[in-house]
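Entry for zinc ion complex. Fields follow.
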Amino acid sequence: MFAIPYLIGGIVAATEDGIINKIHVLSKGGGMSSYSKRQFVRIISVGIIAALMLSPSAWAWGRIGHRVAAEMAESRLSPRALAVIHELLGPGVSLSDISTWADEHRNPSSGAWHYVDVPITESRYDPKYCLSKGCVVSKIADFRRILIDRRADKFKKQEALKYLVHFIEDLHQPLHVADNNDRGGNQTQVRFFNRGSNLHRLWDSQLIENKSHNEQDWLRDINSLATSQNVSQWSKGTPEDWAAESLQIAKKAYCLPGTNTVMPSGTKLDDNYCRMALPIIQTQLAKAAIRVAATLNEIFR
Ligand code: ADE
Ligand code: ZN
Ligand code: ZN
């Protein structure tokens, strides 16, 4: 997403290559400044590299996971919660529309809010792993408090709602809670169907996209998990409990399929790993949806 303007710039520059030698760019003062072709190509290249380095892949469930969980959550809101939320977000804006906002507006100070690094050797979540700058567990509590606060203004509440939905979802991505001294799997390189990737990226998006890019298919699958028994069970607990669940699941994600051996960097993963991971991902997305809805229904009751 981020890289698109740069890529368009690059294509435009390449297309014009044989036609013009000077490219005019609007300068800050409003006048035109001339760049040589070589300078322009260099600027575009730096832009592309910067865009790739800042690419959101390492930050959260990818777009599909966030949007689908939020859409299922919205379908389970009480009439009152739905009314308050639509008043906050404005006409025609859905929970799924705002579910990826926190990744699109990440910055150095909010980056750490999307995860908490609990060592996979731990048996449960411990708040000591939540750094003072905040983590996914503490920020859920912070933004919930803003939504309850009658003195908080509308803008603050809007922002709090966007963060709250996103962070409850991130908390259900197992590798946003667990760590093996590898930044939640970001530094464990893997080969996924013989292409280079890393374990974190697999769980954010690639396992999801490898199954289907179709949000309606995903929505149907995760909705089918919302039996009354599951819903009543999943609606219980606190974000700390949900983090403990994610941690337990992450232990499986870190292991070679069918073993208790943590995978080394360079491990080859394919269908075997997908068969283990996909049911877990479906369940985690369904739980996230149920818990976003339960949290919002409770806040706006
Ligand atoms: N950076 C460090 N740990 C991380 C994690 N668990 N998820 C995403 N980014 C991280
Ligand atoms: Zn992530
Ligand atoms: Zn995120």
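NOTE: The first strand starts at residue 22 and ends at 26.
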